[in-house]
Amino acid sequence: MDVGERIQELAGRVVELRDAYYRGAPVVADAEYDAVEDELRELIAANPELAPDPNPLEQVGAPTVLHAPVRHSRPMLSLEKATRPEQVEAFFGRFPGQSVVVMPKLDGLSLALVYENGQLARAVTRGDGTTGDDVTPLVRALTDGVPARLTIPAMGDDARRSDSSGQGDGSAQGDSSAQGDGSAQGDGSGQGEAPGRVEVRGEAVMLRSTFAAYNAAHPDKPLINPRNAAAGTLRAKDPATVAERRLQFLAFDLLSEGDATDADLERALQTMGFTVAGMRHCDDAASAQAVISTIEAQRNDLDYDLDGAVLRLADRGAFAAAGTRSSSPRGALAYKFAAEEKTTVLADVVWDVGKTGKIAPVAWLEPVFVGGTTVTRATLANQEVIRARDIKIGDTVLVRRAGDVIPFVAGVLDASKRTGAERDIVPPSVCPSCEQPLTEQGNSRELFCTNVSCPAQTVRRLIHWASRAAADIDAIGGVWIERLADAGILEHPSDFYHLTAEGLLEFDRIGEVSAARMIDSIDASRQVGLRRALIGLAIPMASEGTAAKLCRAGFGSLEELVDAGVDGLVAVEDIGPKVAASLVEHLSRLRPELERLRAAGVSLDVREEDLPPVVAAGAPLAGKTVVVTGAISDPRSGEKVARPAFQRLCEKAGATIASSVSASTDFLITGADVGAAKLAKAEKLGVTVVDQAEIWQQLQAADLLTH
Ligand SMILES: NC(=O)c1ccc[n+]([C@@H]2O[C@H](COP(=O)([O-])OP(=O)(O)OC[C@H]3O[C@@H](n4cnc5c(N)ncnc54)[C@H](O)[C@@H]3O)[C@@H](O)[C@H]2O)c1
Ligand SMILES: [Zn+2]
């Protein structure tokens, strides 16, 4: 095939793929679509005379059927893409002296919100860039972060809620998203009245938490990914049919007439009442690159999908003056991150027996690079998910590895690729390990092996006992545990404590050094204590949090938990009757094992570190509820400090630790690299943001840092 033909073919493919995608039924993952675009772009760049006409790369979106077409005041464009630092440098080189904002590139769909005299008049999708669909009723009903009327600050409105301690002032720590506070109202607030027409553009996304909650509640009709879910929501005919699919709007662009508004994009948007996904001002390519890296590193902690970072001139006038190309503004650049979704072939499904006897389907995949690693296994959850997503062995499936670390098979994008050779995924009727019949539980029909002496479960439980969060026997890996279990030497956790170096040396391929290391590691684990022993016993429904709470509640040993009975356990805050019943049932069953552990010198008593901290007199954080975020390090040594360790110090200083910011939080204590969303939330709720340096100082002054 010659170059001209290849170009025609690729151009045709781009049109076809876009068409499917914008109709809501993509047939390939974004990364694969992008690869087609990239190849086409390169061929055209090398052979400009062979450019197709029309050139799809110069068009935006796809000409889909519009239900209520509305013409945009100015085209809604795509963005120029970059993947290399040189491209970021070149961008700065084009605009010497201009400040640039760097922000997450959200993976949702863009919306234009038109305000007339301060009131929301219309919400319109991007469409083909020139004309979009009017989706106002859906946006009003379902989208958070879209004010019905704009807040235009009047004169003197800058007497903001002042933080009692004054600590708020020093708290922005180089994060420009919070620094606009004092100055925003200073210059642009004279106008008490909204300019005639204001258009705010931004991204409507489905939060990952909303997406997960929806799929958990509707296993029979799952959404494939948050971006597709958001787009589908705004295609609904009636808001009532998609009521549980709430969206969030995050603003990134502002067009307004009469310019009384702030020249700085972020301040202008926030002043009007919009949420911005965190913009950082950068004056050179190196600092922009650093922010891009931070955004990418924090990607998994955020509640929304993002597929890159956007760089854009911070000054609204400069951005407008830079003008546009056929399909993208010159004053912006999208830096793309590694894909979190890819397609690959589902080679087989294996049913895996877990430590609690749950039999879960595991997808064996043709290796695929996704979410930063090569993935060969992914979870398929349960048979109900397989049925609802209509997945077969041999299918080309979409694999998602985002937010959480366990890759997931999200579904089949293009069922038309099927050849007929695909096979149904058949759940086993007996346990793959012990061959005992299985039981089915719950709406998602999860399968369980209830045989207490099932060999696969035994190995899983032993591996779990040895894991880091439990006894932490780090010198013995899973392979060894399996060998020892197969040999009949290991069955219960207590058996670890009867292993000897001589016994281990009878096995092939083991030297004296490693045998001694294994025994040392087992020895050290005798100090496991109540909390970690409870985790290690893998009681169904009892989480790591449950174990921590029981220690705090004053239980001194595992035996005391059994003796307390269900009534004694439900008396503990946040311990429900089901968890309590499960604890009592399983710990009673494990009584003989607890005795064996004790006899082997294993401590099942609460450890000092798991007790509620003794609050020192004059504790600096007494009565305060705090949230800790970001990377914490000890200023005395510069050493990284694990968040739980720092939280414990705060508790010793009298604080109550909360996991997320709410109206009852007193302080948000920030370490390095704090996500802008957290800061924005704190600010919105009037929570004082305090830098870790200040807390370290207080801890030191209260003599709490002695160790
Ligand atoms: N899977 C498929 O078959 C298929 C087909 C077509 C397109 N796609 C995907 O759709 C996307 C391409 O669409 P595009 O070229 O129009 O979009 P783009 O990737 O060029 O980005 C432009 C869009 O980014 C969004 N955006 C998010 N955060 C932003 C911010 N902070 N500032 C400015 N814009 C921001 C806006 O909605 C804007 O319209 C790609 O991700 C592509 O992979 C997939
Ligand atoms: Zn079994």
Automatic annotation (TrEMBL):
Catalytic reaction annotation: NAD(+) + (deoxyribonucleotide)n-3'-hydroxyl + 5'-phospho-(deoxyribonucleotide)m = (deoxyribonucleotide)n+m + AMP + beta-nicotinamide D-nucleotide
The protein's Enzyme Commission number: 6.5.1.2
Top-rank taxon, per record: Bacteria
BRCT domain segment(s): 616-707
Enzyme class of the recorded protein, top EC level: ligase
Active site: 105 (n6-amp-lysine intermediate)
Family: Belongs to the NAD-dependent DNA ligase family. LigA subfamily.
HAMAP family reported in the protein's UniProt record: DNA_ligase_A (MF_01588)
Protein known as: DNA ligase
Record organism: Kribbella solani
Gene: ligA
